[in-house]
Amino acid sequence: MEVSNQLTVSLLTSIMAAVLGSLQIGYHTGNINAPARVIEEFFNMTWRSRHNQSIPDHSLTFLWSLSVSIKDFGALLGSLGVKGLADTFGRRNAILIVNALSVVGASLMFMSKVTASFEVLIVGRLIFGLFCGLVMSLNPLYIQGVSPTNLRGAFATLNQVSFASGILLGMVRQTCSHSFSNFVHSSENRK
Length: 191
Prior knowledge:
Blueprint: H1 9-30, H2 36-51, H3 57-80, H4 82-89, H5 91-115, H6 118-146, H7 152-156, H8 158-190
Keywords: Membrane, Transmembrane, Transmembrane helix
Protein name: Major facilitator superfamily (MFS) profile domain-containing protein
Transmembrane segments: 7-27, 62-82, 94-114, 120-142
């Protein structure tokens, strides 16, 4: 397939659609601590329903650490499977297939509350991690394959720029959330 040296609307749309996944991954990387209290309360509620007592601190710390780090472990495993997927299905089709992992992972994380199971949350984060590792490696391959030669380097960096922008957005959101929360609490204390 010969790649044209012209920049077209369909080319820009394809590249932007590919890098939006990296923005989402970056956002979730930079914003993991914001829901910490809610997730820890969920762990405690689930533990209490199973064992009729509050979760011990060491168990809570372990479950929280596992929940956070399992995504990165999944990403490591996912990145190892890129070559096989890209060679078997092609870059574009592999990205489309891999997006199903994002939906499955998010669905499991959502269902963890319904099923009152922190194990389901952890498995959901593992599957989302697989998606992260695969898409963060497949996107640059796809972008380089469809980009005109004269723009290939610039477009290839968009994946990482999108990821870093997502981290920044997540951290800004988290900072604003904490600042607003502190403002509300300080206003309540003044009354």
